[in-house]
Amino acid sequence: MNLYYLAVGITFLIDIILYSIFSVFNKVQPELFGLPFFYWYQILMLVVTTVLMVGASTIKNGEVKGSGSR
User: Fold this and answer.
1) What sections of 1-70 are H helices per DSSP?
2) How many structural domains comprise the chain?
3) How confident is the prediction for the chain on average, in pLDDT?
4) At what angle do helices 3-20 and 37-68 cross, to 10 degrees?
5) CA distances from 32 to 19, 48, 51, 57 (A)
6) Which stretches are transmembrane (predicted)?
7) Other beta carbons less than 10 A from residue 41's beta carbon
8) Domain containing 58: what range?
Protein backbone atom coordinates (compact mmCIF):
# COMPACT_ATOMS: atom_id res chain seq x y z
CA MET A 1 0.00 0.00 0.00
CA ASN A 2 1.18 3.46 -0.83
CA LEU A 3 2.35 5.29 2.32
CA TYR A 4 0.91 8.58 1.06
CA TYR A 5 -2.62 7.21 0.80
CA LEU A 6 -2.31 5.66 4.25
CA ALA A 7 -1.19 9.01 5.73
CA VAL A 8 -4.03 10.89 4.03
CA GLY A 9 -6.56 8.29 5.19
CA ILE A 10 -5.36 8.51 8.78
CA THR A 11 -5.45 12.31 8.57
CA PHE A 12 -9.05 12.30 7.36
CA LEU A 13 -10.02 9.75 9.99
CA ILE A 14 -8.52 11.85 12.80
CA ASP A 15 -10.25 14.98 11.50
CA ILE A 16 -13.62 13.27 11.13
CA ILE A 17 -13.43 11.88 14.67
CA LEU A 18 -12.34 15.18 16.23
CA TYR A 19 -15.01 17.19 14.38
CA SER A 20 -17.75 14.61 15.14
CA ILE A 21 -17.55 14.93 18.90
CA PHE A 22 -19.71 18.05 18.77
CA SER A 23 -21.15 17.53 22.26
CA VAL A 24 -17.66 17.86 23.73
CA PHE A 25 -16.89 21.27 22.24
CA ASN A 26 -20.42 22.75 22.12
CA LYS A 27 -19.78 24.89 25.20
CA VAL A 28 -19.31 28.54 26.02
CA GLN A 29 -16.88 28.04 28.91
CA PRO A 30 -13.88 28.06 29.16
CA GLU A 31 -12.89 31.14 27.23
CA LEU A 32 -9.50 31.79 25.70
CA PHE A 33 -8.69 35.42 24.82
CA GLY A 34 -12.42 36.18 25.00
CA LEU A 35 -13.37 33.45 22.52
CA PRO A 36 -15.77 30.73 23.67
CA PHE A 37 -14.52 27.14 23.68
CA PHE A 38 -16.44 26.31 20.49
CA TYR A 39 -14.59 28.92 18.44
CA TRP A 40 -11.08 28.28 19.71
CA TYR A 41 -11.60 24.53 19.29
CA GLN A 42 -12.44 25.16 15.62
CA ILE A 43 -9.35 27.34 15.21
CA LEU A 44 -7.21 24.70 16.91
CA MET A 45 -8.64 22.04 14.58
CA LEU A 46 -7.71 24.15 11.54
CA VAL A 47 -4.11 24.20 12.78
CA VAL A 48 -4.13 20.44 13.53
CA THR A 49 -5.59 19.66 10.10
CA THR A 50 -2.98 21.85 8.41
CA VAL A 51 -0.13 20.14 10.25
CA LEU A 52 -1.47 16.67 9.40
CA MET A 53 -1.93 17.53 5.72
CA VAL A 54 1.57 19.05 5.53
CA GLY A 55 2.89 15.80 7.01
CA ALA A 56 1.05 13.76 4.39
CA SER A 57 2.34 16.09 1.66
CA THR A 58 5.89 15.70 2.97
CA ILE A 59 5.52 11.93 2.75
CA LYS A 60 4.30 12.31 -0.84
CA ASN A 61 7.24 14.54 -1.79
CA GLY A 62 9.68 12.15 -0.14
CA GLU A 63 8.28 9.22 -2.14
CA VAL A 64 8.52 11.13 -5.43
CA LYS A 65 12.11 12.19 -4.79
CA GLY A 66 13.13 8.82 -3.37
CA SER A 67 11.60 6.70 -6.14
CA GLY A 68 13.73 8.12 -8.96
CA SER A 69 17.14 7.96 -7.29
CA ARG A 70 18.97 4.65 -7.10
Assistant:
1) 3-20, 22-25, 37-68
2) 1
3) 77
4) 180
5) 19, 17, 21, 31
6) 6-25, 37-59
7) 20
8) 3-68
Q: What burial class does residue 23 get, using C-beta atoms within 10 Å of its C-beta: 0-12 exposed, 13-18 middle, 19+ buried?
A: exposed
- What confidence tens digit (pLDDT) does each residue in 37-53 have? 778 888 888 998 888 88
Q: Which residue has the higher pLDDT, 67 or 18?
A: 18
Nearest to 31 by CA among 22, 41, 23, 44: 41
What is the DSSP code (8-state) at residue 30? S
How far apart (Å, rounded) are the C-alpha atoms in residues 10 and 30?
30
How far, in Å, CA of 58 to CA of 60, rounded? 5
